[in-house]
Write a structure and sequence with these properties.
mainly alpha, 8 helices
Length: 189
């Protein structure tokens, strides 16, 4: 028995939606706050503190995108608020807003051209605000390259098994690839 079959995932999604919205939003607001508190207790610099905001968000969006093909606002919006707040305290608010706007615009353009997910657009606004425009665009490119490599592996696997039918039965969830790309590019910057 597959533990993540379609009925199980639908049930998990219904249970998550049964949690009052106020609790989901409170959870989304507190999770980045805990990461920031840990960073501050460890005497992290402002750049590392900004990156710490991303960790809980990337974890949650990866799981929700894999399970339900959704990137929930209740984690993305509070993460953006934390990123902007930390940038304001650190004195780099214009840079954070510019980075968020650049990444939002780039992902919105890709969304309009190729019909990607709207959650990915919001996700990259937060990534751009936390990492900056240049690092955010680098993570975006790396995420798409990781997804392309995975798709090639899927196709190669299908060809070796001589399977017929569609390789991808639907859209490929991009949040796992974007999350991995952010971790890889943020560690290099």
């Amino acid at each position: 028995m597959n533990i993540l079959d379609a009925d199980t995932l639908r049930g998990m999604y219904r249970r998550m939606l049964a949690v009052p919205a106020s609790r989901r939003w409170a959870f989304g607001l507190l999770m980045p706050g805990f990461a920031v508190a840990i960073a501050l207790l460890c005497d992290a610099d402002d750049s590392l503190t900004m990156r710490c905001v991303l960790l809980p968000m990337l974890t949650i969006v990866t799981l929700t995108d894999l399970a339900w093909r959704r990137i929930p606002n209740w984690i993305v919006v509070p993460s953006m608020a934390w990123s902007v707040g930390i940038a304001a305290v650190a004195g780099v608010l214009p840079s954070a807003l510019t980075g968020g706007a650049i990444c939002f615009a780039a992902m919105l353009g890709l969304h309009l051209l190729f019909r990607g997910g709207e959650g990915d657009v919001k996700l990259f606004a937060v990534i751009g605000a936390a990492l900056g425009g240049s690092a955010g665009l680098e993570a975006m490119l790396a995420g798409y390259l990781l997804a392309a490599a995975f798709a090639v592996l899927l196709i190669a696997g299908r060809l070796t098994r001589r399977s017929t039918g569609p390789v991808l039965a639907g859209h490929l969830p991009m949040a796992p690839f974007f999350s991995l790309a952010v971790l890889l590019t943020a560690s290099g910057n």
